[in-house]
Write a structure and sequence with these properties.
The complex is a heterodimer of chains A (about 425) and B (about 240).
Chain A: H1 2-15, H2 17-45, E1 56-61, H3 82-91, E2 96-108, E3 117-124, H4 127-131, E4 136-139, H5 144-149, E5 153-156, H6 158-165, E6 174-177, E7 180-188, E8 211-214, H7 218-221, H8 240-245, E9 252-256, H9 260-279, E10 289-293, H10 294-300, H11 306-336, H12 338-346, H13 351-387, H14 399-425, H15 429-435
Parallel strand pairs in A: 3-8, 5-7
Antiparallel strand pairs in A: 1-9, 1-10, 2-3, 2-6, 2-9, 4-7, 5-8, 6-7
Chain B: E1 2-12, E2 17-28, E3 33-37, H1 44-51, E4 59-64, E5 67-68, H2 74-84, E6 85-88, H3 100-109, H4 115-128, H5 144-157, E7 162-166, H6 174-189, E8 193-197, H7 201-205, E9 209-214, E10 217-223
Helix pairs in contact in B: 3-4, 3-5, 4-5, 5-6
Classes of the chains: A alpha+beta (about 425), B alpha/beta (about 240).
């Protein structure tokens, strides 16, 4: 019966091309609008490491000054100091842990045609690659020994390997960073977790850095921090070491804690650590340590702005207006076919059978409007990319969004068809036959 | 076949009540061809709608094909309409987008018959009305008489026990009207009961008997003793 109803639906839509175009157009405009905003929202609110996002925890410790909290009402800083980060790495109380910050290097190539380049980099431990499931094209992360010895090794992004080595296997080759030779140990596959959860303080929707080097090179190379840096007091002295010893927060610390027991133990460890530090005159505020898993961390950092949420709400209200118009058009269309409705009822079609027939017709309208709406949404996203700088990664349409948009179109058009279908099938058939 | 006892139907609005049928009683035997006559507004169409289970009534008892249908729900009425009743309307009521084959197919679609069985019945019904060669035509490509014959084929395809016809020749010229009437007589002669509403005394004379309706009541019943002798060009359905 479905195929029969589908055929009737297509015949019916062909019968009134103008009315059909209006209905599909109304659905398409509503879906196009909501697809555009929802696609941006979907990218912003996604969990880029959903398979283990509930095992990875961003660590917060309140080392802030006594006079006022880092953020009202009593928020601890979202990053850690260098000395606390290193202490937590040494303690190694979690299944795995990672400390990192963003920096940059001047890269000089052996190739005469490649000019020196200022490249964004991340100084980190090798655990970064295993904890965050970074995929590799060639090689892999460096060894723990390389971490300890602050060896001059580097992992390249896929794009940068393409730029430097034409995409070939560059493991074992050397690059010159800040006048030092680094050996390539790994090349990532294209990897762009969105949002960039491991550093939610800086450029949340930007791409990961192009170079990754051992964090312990920070001393020998005096690596500067390129990311967010907050301090509640001046360092003891203005030297580089003074900055490292300061209460300034600028590094991201993550712990892998698979079970609740692990989390409880780690929280207790952090509390004990802070108590210990208090004896040294640090952490003047009450003990306040927090652990946030990935989704919680993204929400905590307001990765999805209120504006985006409001925009999604508005676009769905617009969709509702479009669907209200569609209801009127569908009702007009159905009532124009009152003679056919009466005839079908007279020859034995039950109300349910006719209701089903008209829902199939509205579904066809919905799917057609949804497909056209996707095209409009795609065009809308191109518009967003042109209007908003650096929004290429946000304004994109993935298969999930295509499915969601079609589902919204189908459900909303079926909802829009419910009232007209209910209305026409409940009128006694004799009325329609008289009209005829 | 059809037994109505004291059927009443009142149409109500906020300000007025109209008694469309009052104490309407009628018996139609199996195989009969009955004409229902009366002036406009007398209640003929209301009777036909109630008899065809297209409309409910307020009081009375209605037995159709041995079954009390007075209190059937909508699904039950639809089921009986589909399996036991055929309709022929003055304005044919063909679906303009569907070709002849698909128009005849409409009632069969709601019976859950397999495709082969439906095709067989449609073919047979169209052959009966002489339109087997026009299966792929749409209604607009047919004359009025041909359209009414398609409507008759649609009614026949379901092999109904009783056929209700509402002014079946009202929109046709005299030649086509006679062809349609010949067809109905043929169908009746094969055993299908027919109840036909008409204004036309000429048409009524070709029925077994006529029933006159006035002010929602049956006024007179005239049996026609030898109806068979009046038939011409009878078509076997």
């Amino acid at each position: 019966m479905f195929l029969y109803n589908l055929r009737l639906a297509l015949l019916s839509l062909r019968r009134d091309p103008v009315l059909t175009a209006l209905m599909i157009g109304a659905v398409a405009i509503g879906i196009g609008m909501s697809t555009t905003t929802l696609a941006v929202y979907h990218t912003m609110s996604g969990n880029p490491i959903s398979w283990k996002g509930d095992q990875l925890y961003a660590v917060q410790m309140d080392n802030w000054g006594p006079s006022q909290p880092y953020n009202e009402p009593d928020e601890p800083p979202p990053q850690v100091t260098y000395r606390d980060g290193q202490a937590l790495m040494k303690a190694a109380k979690a299944k795995d842990q990672n400390l990192s910050f963003t920096t940059s290097f001047v890269l000089q190539s052996d190739k005469p045609d490649v000019k020196p380049d200022l490249v964004q980099a991340r100084a980190t431990y090798t655990s970064f690659f295993t904890m965050f499931d970074v995929p590799f094209e060639y090689g892999g992360g460096w060894s723990k020994q390389a971490d300890q010895d602050a060896q001059q090794v580097v992992v390249l992004s896929n794009a940068y390997n393409e730029k430097l080595f034409g995409g070939t296997n560059s493991v074992g080759k050397e690059v010159v960073l800040n006048n030092r030779r680094f050996q390539v140990v790994g090349v990532m596959k294209p990897w762009n977790p969105m949002p960039k959860f491991f550093d939610a303080q800086d450029d949340q929707f930007g791409e990961p850095e192009d170079l990754f080097v051992p964090l312990n090179l920070i001393g020998p190379m005096q690596l500067h921090n390129n990311g967010n840096n907050s301090c509640w007091g001046p360092p003891a002295n203005n030297s580089f070491q003074g900055h490292l010893d300061s209460e300034c927060v600028w590094l991201q610390f993550w712990a892998e804690l698979p079970t609740q027991a692990d989390r409880d133990d780690y929280h207790a460890f952090l509390d004990a650590y802070v108590q210990e530090q208090k004896k040294l005159g640090r952490f003047p505020r009450p003990v306040h340590n927090e652990l946030h898993d990935v989704p919680d961390w993204l929400a905590y950092n307001h990765v999805v702005s209120k504006d985006s949420e409001a925009l999604v709400g508005l676009s769905f209200m617009f969709l509702a207006v479009c669907m209200l118009n569609t209801i009127g058009l569908i009702l007009a269309k159905f009532l124009r076919r009152s003679g056919e409705i009466g005839l079908r009822r007279a020859v034995g079609a039950s109300k349910t059978a006719l209701f089903y027939q008209y829902l199939v017709e509205t579904s066809v309208i919905g799917i057609s409007g949804g497909i056209l709406g996707l095209v409009l949404g795609w065009a809308g996203l191109i518009g967003v990319r042109h209007l908003i700088e650096d929004s290429d990664h946000l304004a994109r349409l993935d298969w999930t969004m295509v499915g969601i948009s079609l589902l919204i179109a189908l459900v909303s058009s079926m909802l829009a068809g419910l009232y007209p279908a209910w209305r026409v099938v409940r009128i006694p058939p004799a009325i329609y036959l008289k009209v005829q | 076949m059809l037994s109505m006892q004291n059927i009443s139907k009142i149409y109500r609005t906020d300000v007025v009540q109209t008694h469309a049928l009052r104490d309407f009683s009628l018996e139609v035997k199996e195989g009969e061809f009955v004409a229902v006559m009366g002036p406009s507004g007398s209640g003929k169409t209301t009777f036909l709608n109630i008899a065809g289970l297209l409309e409910s009534f307020d009081t009375g008892i209605y037995m159709l094909d041995g079954e009390d249908v007075s209190n059937l729900n909508d699904d039950g009425r639809s089921h009986i309409r589909n399996e036991r009743i055929g309709f022929i309307f003055q304005s044919f009521n063909l679906i303009p987008d569907l070709n002849v084959f698909d128009n005849v197919d409409v009632p069969l679609r709601y019976r859950g018959l397999k495709s082969a069985e439906r095709s067989k019945r449609i073919q047979a019904a169209l052959e009966t009305v002489g339109l087997a060669s026009r299966m792929k035509h749409i209604p607009a490509q047919l004359s009025g008489g041909q359209q009414q014959r398609v409507a008759i084929a649609r009614a026949l395809a379901g092999e109904p026990r009783i056929l209700f016809a509402d002014e079946p020749t009202g929109n046709l010229d005299s030649l086509m009207a006679r062809q349609v009437l010949d067809l109905l007589e043929g169908i009746n002669s094969s055993g299908t009961t027919i109840v036909m509403v008409t204004h036309d005394p000429e048409l009524a004379r070709r029925a077994h008997r006529s029933v006159h309706v006035l002010d929602g009541q049956v006024m007179d019943l005239k049996a026609v003793p030898d109806s068979g002798s009046k038939r011409e060009n009878g078509v076997k359905a």
